[in-house]
Write a structure and sequence with these properties.
Strand order of the largest sheet: 3-2-6-1-7
Shape: globular
CATH class of the largest domain: Alpha Beta
Oligomer: single chain
Number of strands: 7
Strand content: 5-15%
CATH superfamily of the largest domain: Peptidoglycan recognition protein-like
Protein name: N-acetylmuramoyl-L-alanine amidase
Number of domains: 2
Catalytic activity: Hydrolyzes the link between N-acetylmuramoyl residues and L-amino acid residues in certain cell-wall glycopeptides
Order of helices and strands: EHEEEEEHEHHHHH
Low-confidence stretches: none
GO molecular function, one term: N-acetylmuramoyl-L-alanine amidase activity
Distance between the termini: 17 Å
Helix content: 25-40%
CATH architecture of the largest domain: 3-Layer(aba) Sandwich
Structural class: alpha/beta
Mean pLDDT: 96
Largest sheet: 5 strands, mixed
Enzyme class: hydrolase
Number of helices: 7
CATH topology of the largest domain: Lysozyme-like
Organism: Paracraurococcus lichenis
Length: 205
Amino acid sequence: MLVLHYTGMRSGEEAIARLRDPAARVSSHYVVEEDGTVFRLVPEARRAWHAGISHWRGRTGLNASSIGIEVVNPGHDWGYRPFPALQMAAVCDLCLEILARHPIPAINLVAHSDIAPDRKQDPGELFDWEGLAANGVGLWPHDSAAMPAEAAAPALLAAIGYRTDLPLPVLLAAFQRHWRPARVDGVADAGTLARLAAIAALAAA
């Protein structure tokens, strides 16, 4: 798996210092600064402590089976802002390099908020998932022609990979942050249902 985060700290320097501090008990394989500079902190073959309590497509404890990329951004607590174009280009290039080395399915390129929807919001609704997918990194939906009923939402979320033991609005908000960022309210409106169906179909392909 490949998991994308934001640093959620006031600066990249502060974030890297924390990620390198053994006492913090947190780490990642890579950090991408706002100017596009990439820092390699942990070899890909070694476990980094970036995912925490996590679940995706039936697997848990995802530190053991994932590569983590921290993207410098202050996050929702310190003045969340758009990710610069240079930074997104560097993230895209880094992801493509990783995908060339590891057979990671597109559905397993996820946000921290996807694998820990009750704890995390990152990298959030301003992250350019659509742009990444246009360059071969991850999935982006083309809305389904079929409109599922609201009652189908839990099954669709499970088919995509989300855990099923959390309140539906929490899971829907996590899905929206990744695949419908224009509306992050945890409501199964028509647009969200259409995107759920589209991503579930792509995940099953």
